[in-house]
Amino acid sequence: MNLIRRLLQAVVVLWAAFTLSFLILYLLPGDAVLTKLGSAEGGPSASPEQVAQLRAQFGLDQPILVQYGKHLLAALHGDFGVSVTTGDGATHMVLTALPPTLAVTGLALLLAVVFGGAVAVLGTYTRARWLSHALLSLPPLGTSLPPFWVGLLLIQLFSFRLRLVPALGSAGFASLILPAITLALPTGAIIAQVLAKSLRTQLAEPYVEIVRAKGAGRGRVHFGHALRNAGLPALTLAGVVAGNLLAGSVVTETVFSRDGLGRITASAVTAQDVPVVQAVIVLAAFFFVVLNLLVDLVYPLLDPRVRKEVTIDG
Amino acid sequence: MPAFVLPLALAACGVADGSGPQDSGPPRPGGTLRLGLSSAPDCIDPQQAATNAALNVGRQVVDSLTDQDPKTGAIVPWLADHWTVGGESTSFTFHLRGGATFSDGTPVDAAAVKTSFDGIVALGAKSLLGNSYLAGYRAATVVDPATVRIDFGAPNAQFLQASSTMSLGVLAPSAYRRTAEQRCQGDGLIGSGPFVVTGFRPNQDIALSKRTGYGWGSPLWRHQGAAYLDRIDYRVVPEPGVRTGSLASGQLDAITDVQPVDEAQFTGNGFSEPVRPNPGVVFNLHANVTRGVLADVKVRQAVSKGINRPEVTSTVLSANYKPATSILGSTTPFYTDLSKALAYDPAAAGALLESDGWVPGPDGIRVKNGQRLTASVVFSAVFNQNQSVLELVQQQLRKIGFDLRIELHTNTETSRIQQSGDYDFLWYNVTRADPDILRQQFSVKGGNRSRLPADNPLEPSLAEQSATVDTARRKPAAEQAQRTIVEQAYAIPVFELTQVLAVGPKAHDVGFEASSRLQLFDAWVSGS
Known about the structure:
The complex is a heterodimer of chains A (314) and B (528). By secondary structure, chain A is mostly helical. Chain A contains 15 helices and no strands. Helix content of chain A is 79%, strand content 0%. In chain A, helix 5 (90-125) runs parallel beside helix 14 and helix 8 crosses helix 12. Chain B is built from 15 helices and 27 strands.
């Protein structure tokens, strides 16, 4: 029963994402045709007849409900329509842009978890006050550095000066490193902040005293008990982190001249290219739904209390 | 003729580069040109494309019936070796050269040209440029396999120049078995040009490869036969700092859209900076003469005198940009030099306003019958420096007591506002190497951006220049149109948009065609 309810919820979330994105783009002044005309550098002024003709070609002249119904019906078959700017299928555009984005965000997530986690654990574990201070002041710094600037700085140093990695494109692993670091920085900082805070909270809990009294060493208390419990809030953060990575990919993909979801989302939103925006948003919503489902499934494995509730419910 | 120094400058840079440490000697075949574009071409079919980035790609893939000399503006043979213009410029008969083929092996014959032109018309408004060039298109007729006639319902003098553009480039009949959307993505984009599309990743790169056996180049090109370059790799590099850094560090061979602040680093050191002002309507404040203070011709004239154009190019732009000397760019055929009328003269501007009853108000802005001397300008950021330019113009006009309010809008909003007519000034430019662009923007039968009444003094000369390809009649009409626009200040020209490339030590002869888009047939690379 629980699973069916969850699936229904997922469907509602996807539908809501689809509908809201459509409404928002529809309510904005202008439409994709006007944007297309406005970006034509060599374009003479299009006559009102031409504008009307273009609107008709893209089906933008139909009433909102008809447009919405058509889009929704096609979307149910996985077809989000044709991009007004590129003429490519929206589904195809999103699916081709997905792998490069996943590669960078995947590596960024790995770096963020490893380094963010390390900063938090070491920062709370070490007895050297200066080291603790130094480590724990890194996360606020990490969140305050603009990724755009960090990316340019990294390119300047590692690509233009030292010539270690290419500045452009998405050819091979070398091209992943700098964008992944840029993207990992703010994400890792959030992970470090949340984990450090909950580690401290855990270490102040009464159960820690009991564990200590039972003869557990510092390491065992820190890694065996506190970290395990502190991991829960950090795990809940997965959704935020994923959103963060997706948003950050707009900047990194522009700075590093890469194709990807971020780039096509940014340009589709500015162009009011409804089919592409909807394809991206539904895909993103799908990821969030799956991610949250996974988190919910993993949670009881870590926390016996949650496991009990789930068993009763199921 | 300072406007036409470009080909000389190009030749000079080729020689100058050759004398450097890199190498000298004649152009040599082979190699890849890695070229950084500032924006992603959304659709690479030149018949549908309307952005510079896309047209810079499309030009290399398709040939046109004619070519246009960037130096003189003259129309010369290309796929057509001669042509005749009949009626009152309503009928154009092209005699095709023999031997040209599309990259799928089929011949470039009259039937193919007809299919291609019909195809552009069928695109409707999806071919924004092509359709405006073919306005009034009646039919293309296959007279014999090597002769095709194109008929229009009304005089259409601009068509001859249009036949030289990539927008009317000829695609193979097989291309039209693909949908317009597929051609956008390079699928079925089969032309007879010196390069063929071999790869297209949106937002990423476009690869063109040399067509072997090509031998029907334009006589304007420096060599005949196949192109020198084996490959052209266009990379999309949106961030200007990364673009310049990539060129400086040798990861690219040439880049487009060099920002004025970055220009200095590419003068010398083996680098060169080919530049060419765009032909067509220069960046201007296009007045809506039905609104507010701009309905008064003296106010418009005062604004024109109150703008210090050389200061705009020297402070906000660079020495590569030219102050406007007409509403048309200096590289446009039949451009006429009106620099005297466009000279900076704040004293005369003040006197004009004074005589018109505008007196300085408490804040320095003039007033008349309780009305403030103010107008707003609608613009978008299509050109990076637009905001800075307009802020400077705003300061300049403040000195004559005119309050220019600047309104930045998105592309969507600007085109909506432009369509609706709800503006005082519009800020824009249009690239077109034919004076007929004035008719398209100013005529009551065209865009009529000034919202002129039907009996305005400009209309006769606009109509006259579009009615004949005879230079003796067309030239004076086109010149009169420019003079009327500047004198009446229907639009106030400010500066000429200029293409500024930066080219690394290994690349040579990266050139422009007549509309200031890239022509890469003669380009070559040394070393490897």
